[in-house]
Amino acid sequence: MCNNLSMFKIIKLCEKKDVINSIDSSEYKKQRVIELINLCDKENRQWLYIELTREQLGEIILPQHIHNKSEIIDIYGVKVKDFNYKNFGKNCECKKSINYFSDTNNISTLILSLGKIKGVNIDDGYDGLHNNPLKLYHLDGLHRMLGYYKQSNNNKVRAYIAW
Ligand SMILES: [Zn+2]
């Protein structure tokens, strides 16, 4: 295994089908996540199931996020810990979703990539992101990771990562 992985608490190696089976979203959103997972496949990445520290959760890079036609995160992306909660404007849905996940013990698995994935369509929101091969990038679970990060207790957050 490459050195980039030494910073993570690895639980197990896993397969693409495990990652796809973990997606808990609407059918439309699920298809979009599967497209991203397929791009990881094209890069011959493998999947790991890991446990994140709170610090690692805060360092995850989020892509552009448009919710109900409002741009909540711009094309340059933002780290979870640097997300600006003033960005909501009149968009209550996004805020509501994050608040929901900041107040639940039901922690579900995130999907991430180590380093930015290539070959993503311009409208996927990853295009403007700087690539750092040592950083984790969001693939699924944007509202969840912001909500979990707000939690003050030590719930264990786990993630599938494509490396
Ligand atoms: Zn949102």
List keywords for this structure.
9 strands; 163 residues; 29% helix; alpha+beta; binds zinc ion; 5 helices; two-stranded antiparallel sheet
Question: Could you explain how this protein is built, in words?
Answer:
The chain has 163 residues and is of the alpha+beta class. It has one domain (6-157). The protein is 29% helix and 24% strand. It has a 5-stranded mixed beta sheet, with helices on both faces. A two-stranded antiparallel ribbon has the order 3-6. A two-stranded antiparallel ribbon has the order 4-5. It is globular, with a radius of gyration of 15 Å. The termini are close together. It binds zinc ion.
Distance between the termini: 10 Å
Strand portion: 15-25%
The side-by-side strand order for the widest beta sheet comes to 1-2-9-7-8
Outline type = globular
Helix content: 25-40%
Biggest β-sheet: count, sense, barrel? Answer: 5 strands, mixed
The helix/strand class is alpha+beta
Bound molecules: zinc ion
| Helix segment tally | 5
E-strand count: 9
Count the domains: 1
Report Rg: 15 Å
